[in-house]
Every structure is written in structure tokens, then in C-alpha cells.
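Researcher: Please predict.
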Amino acid sequence: MATRRSVLGGIAGSIAVTPGHAAGAAGHSSAASGVARPLPLAAVRLRPSDYDSAITVNRAYLLRLQPDRLLHNFRLYAGLTPKGAIYGGWESDTIAGHTLGHYLSALVLMWQQTGDAEMRRRADYIVGELALCQAKRGTGYVGGLGRKRKDGTIVDGEEIFPELMKGDIRSGGFDLNGSWSPLYTVHKLFAGLLDVHGGWGNAQALHVAQGLAGYFARVFEVLSPDQVQTVLGCEYGGLNESYAELYARTREPHWLRMANTLYDTRVLDPLAQGEDRLANLHANTQVPKLIGLARIHEVSGGAPDKARAARVFWEAVTRHHSYVIGGNADREYFSEPDSIAQHVTEQTCEHCNSYNMLKLTRHLWSWQPDGALFDYYERAHLNHVMSAQDPATGGFTYMTPLMSAAPRDYSTTADDAFWCCVGTGMEAHAKHGDSIFAEGDDGTFYVNLYIPADAHWSARGATVGLATRYPFEGMATLSFAKLRRGRFPVALRVPGWAAGRAVVTVNGAAATPVMARGYAVVTRNWQAGDRIAITLPLDLRLEATPGDDSMVAVVRGPMVLAADLGPVTSEWTKPDPALVGTDLLGGFSATDAAAGSYATYGVMRPGDLPFVPFYRQYRRRSAVYFKRFSDSAWAKEEAAYIADQARLKDIAARSVDVMHLGEMQPERDHKLTSEISYPVTYRGRQGRDARSGGFIDFEMATRSGPLILQATYWGGERARDFDILVDNVKVATQHLDNDAPGKFFDVDYPLPEALTRGKAKIAVRIVPHDRSSAGPIFGMRLYTAKPGTVA
């Protein structure tokens, strides 16, 4: 996503340090004062709007969750009797416990945002329980994460850490000695404890956090630098941020040393050198590392290399790796820069990524306020974060799909998911008042987001209010109900798409603001009763994908519009919509401008469609991206375009199950097990291989009737041979040897009906021949055969 100006300039010499304002960062302290900071969340109250409604829905969700159920493993593994049954989903896997950390942070944020005393009571209760568990263990460790042994049983995950200290380290992208991203889980708990301490000074939370920090400091202190890097090859969240924050609270130098120890050289060194090597990296594994570097920079009195890495990362992601809604990544991974047009799929935009990118944005903005940073923030907050909560149920998305007609999948009221994005969802929708208003060390009062709200600005003894229907209407009015009279600047953000066209008035009279760093700034002697208003144009425009002008989205102000393809309960059987003509926007006409609704006339193929705000299409099928054609180009391409769309939709319609090998969640959903097998990346696609003596084994859903198992391979492999078995019956021996140089290709394996008859699932097993390897395989699909195509 383009911004008005680069934010990379002057890093080494001009960055001032500031208190971090990450999610749940109440009470953050810093080694030095900063240049700007958002008003405390507790000082802001929302007025009625979609944002306020999201807070209300999420508050009910937080109250629905039972702390004792989230504490189940913590008590069990500490030798105490659990008080509640364990939840399902991820909480019944080895990543158990991560949700409790998110929940603590969300409780603090909801208490700050609404003042609900029950949120504080629950957080204090959980901290007390954690203190009991920690005391019972006697090592400083406290946790609910598990470890899967070779016999499949899940036991207390603490047993992996003595193994690491002895040099027995088996680290993959998401597995560490049989535990699923254990340090990621530790970070969530660590962060939650610090948030409770910062929220209202709960000393017990800080004590538990210090015990946990000391335990893991002892683990890492006995490792060599190479061993540390091996451990950090497994996702570790923002554990470096938590240690930096603990240092800010206690001023104990060994915590800062630990923060600096948790540094993944493979990923972070190139960023510190200004290089974008993000392609094929798991996106959300990286974002928290950069938030950690930002916090280290702040608390250490300045670390320019870490600040540079954070800025380079932000710039690369927002300009070259982000979709129009502000989210990033396809099936959780970054692709090559400026290649997202090739990755508009049903698995785009993991919510955690955007949640953490907004945290990083707040850090960077506080060092050097620039409206361009909040242009991105607003885009992702409105279009992605707001679309990720189902207001009818309180459920959350994992991915927010941008492929035409793909439905959003939300967690359910059964509370049986507890994905990572459920955790960030409960945090994100507890704090929509965050960062609307901010104050600078020079006395400037900033309005960053046009969300209706009231706030107390303690520096001026002021009560301020923001009235607006933005983004549905272009005007926003800031008023001072109470104020100690004085001269200071008020800075209203002017988005890049509105540059040169914003109109500002003071007390109803035209004003001529100074334009500076993306803000319209009015400096005067302000007094109670004064009003300053800004009006922004909300014209429609087309935004091309980075690197491909032939694929566009329709945007109104900051709001992404989408073609409405009907309810999720109805299938979309037509080709993907396309835009055709020379005056595409001329074919749009507002039907309800106040609701952001438009009709199209003659510019859509295969037919006209209504357009509405994307984020509000909770239970609808959407089309966000459109190939655009001139009339003459469409005439030439129409037949091939429609045929290709039909082929893809036919395959999708006949698919029974799809297995995305090499990707974390699909492998877990399909209960993949393997030996001597590794995830791989070729040409931006994730896959998995198996070496001699190993195997890959996973489940796929099936159904009655003739079925075909399809595998995708890279065409340039050297010679190799392997067997494919279904329920221990060999269905094929595959030989690969430079079959289709320069491209991927599919191989179909018709399955005997006897193999699937009467079954709900089948077991697929991939076994390499002796001294050979299997694959890599870039996905397997089970789909129904067309009548007459299988004997």
C-alpha cells in the first residue's frame, strides 16, 4: 500500500525514544521521554458506531469464557486439581495456554476501554491462580503448554526445557522437541502478566512474570550462540519485547541482555541492512520480533540498528506485501515483493498479522509522528480488523479471504477453536478507542483516527469530543467541552488520498491550516467551546495491486468496497467478476451514499453487481479484486478467461478435501505425522518432502463414489521415486525427473472405489524408495471424478 512519503529518512540521527504503545501496553515506561504518545485508553470512551458495537459484542464474549477452563492445564501440570474442564481446539493441543495470555491482555484492555470492574476482577483472579501454580512447581516456571511424546500422549511441556539445556534441540518452524511453538505460548502469558501489572499496578503479576523470566533466562544462558539460533528457528513470538518491557519496569540490566539474546539473525540482520528478504517466511512469526526490536530501541536509550530494522520491515510489508484491506500473507506466508496479484486466494490476511502490524505502527509513529503511518493503520483497522469479528456471534476469523466468492469462516459459540487469531481478536475488539487521540511533547493535540469518541486530556484539563459518521460521511468535528485556555497546535490527519482537498473550519469559519507530515495543523489560543472541523472528499477510486496494474480494487476514502455476491448460504456459480471499459468509475452510481452502497451499470462482467463496504459483509460472499480490461481486450480474452474460471471452479466444486502440505494449520487439521520430512518452499509455494527412511502420513476426508487423488509437483526435480498409499494400499509409484521444467504440474491418481466406500476419512501415506526422496509435494487434493472418467 502506497504512503505519501517514505518514513525511512533520518533514522540514525533523529529518532527519539518514547513509551511503547503496544496492545495492552498500559503502564509502559521508558528510559527517556518521547515525542508523542496516544492518550491512555482509559481516558477514551466511544460514542455509538460500529466500533462501539464491536466492543459490546466482544465484552459479552470475554464474559462467556470461563477462567477456570483456561487454567485447566496450568493447575493440572502443577500438580493441582483443575477447577474446570479443558477447552477444545488449540487448547487441547500442545499450544495450550496461549489463549490465557491473550485473555489476560484482553481483560485489561476491556477494563480500560469500558471501566467494567468484572474484567479487573477476573484478571486478578487468574494472576492469583498462576501464582499458586508457580509456587507449587518451585522453579519459577508456570505454564499450560504440552509436549507430545512419540506414543502420541500429551504431557507437561516443561519437560522439553531441560532437554534444550543439555543440547538436545530439535527445532522446526513450529515444533520444538515435540511442542507446538512453546516460546510463542510463553510470550503470550508473559505479555498478559505485564499488562495486568501495568493496568492497575498488580504487584503479584509482576512477581509471577519475573519468576517466569528468570526460568527462561537460565535456559538460554547455558546455550551457545549457535544453539540459541537453533532454538529461535522455532516461532518465539515477541518474547524479546516482554524482556525489554520487564527491563523498563525493573531497570534490571540482565532483562535487557535477555531481550537482545532473543535475536533471530537469519531474519533480522537483512532488515537491519535495509533488505527485504521476506518472501517465503511465515509472516506472523516475524512481526512480533520487530515489535520487540522497537521496544528494545525505546528502553535502551536508542538502538539505531533495531529501529532501522523495524522501519524497513514496516515499509516493505505495507508497500510491497499488503492487500488492499491492509492485511498481508497468503496461507500465512509472505510472497515475493509486489506479487500479491498472484496470491488472491481463500487463505489471505491472517488476522494476527494485521493486529501486530498495528502495534508496530504505533511504535514507529510515536518516534516521529507522520500521518502516513496512520493512513496504513486506518486502512487495516477499518477493513481487516473490523471484518474479522462476527457481530452476531462474537466469533473471529483466522484468515480473511479475498478470493472472489470465498466465505469468511468464524470461530463459533461452541468455543472449540482458540486459534491464535481468536486471541488477537479478543484483544483487538477490546480497544477501538486506542490511538484516536494523541499528545506530543511539544503540546500538540493529534487526531489520528476519525472514530466518534470522547476523551479526557489531562495535560490541559480538557474534555474533548469527536463527532463524525466517517467513513460514510466526510466531516469530523473536534470540540473542547472543558479546557484550560492556552495556545497549542491541533493536528488533524489528512489522508494521502485527500491531500490538497481537505477543508478545515474553526468555529464555523474557514481556516488555513499549516500542512505538515500528513496533518492539517491549526495553532491558536484555544478555549472551552471551540470547535475545529475537517471535511474530507470521499470519492471512489481504483487501486491497483502492487506490481500488477491489471488487477484493481474499488475504494471510497479509507473504505474498501466489494461486489456483493450473495449470502454464504447460496453458492456463487458464475465466473469471477471483471471490470470492462474505459471509464470504469463512470459506471458506478451511489444508491445509499450514507451506507457506502453503489450500483454498477455496464462495466461489470458477467453482469452488474451492487457494491457495499467489505468489512460489513460478515455472512456474504464478496469480490474485492477485479481484472480490468478494455472493451477490445475483453473481446479477445473473454472466452479464455471464462473457460479458465470455469475449470478452476469445477475443480473446487468437485473437491472433497484439500491438503496444503508444508503449512502449519492445514497439517495440524489433517493430523499429519512424519519422520525425516521437512517443509520446503519452491517458487513461492509451500510443500513438504520426505527423505530416505522417512514418511509423510495424514488424513483426508472422503465420500462415496469414484474419487481422484491429485498431487502437485515442481517440474524441475532431479530423479526420485516414491510410493503413494491409501489406507496402506499402494495406489501409485511416482517417478519425478525434470518432467515439466519451469512450472508446477498435477498428477491424478484414480482411487479404486473399494478404498473409500463407506468411509468418512482415509489415511494417505507417502514413502520414498530406498536412497531416494519423496516429493516435494505442493499440496494434495481429493475430488470426485466426472461420470465415465474412471473405470
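Model: Residues 1-33 have pLDDT under 50 and may be disordered.
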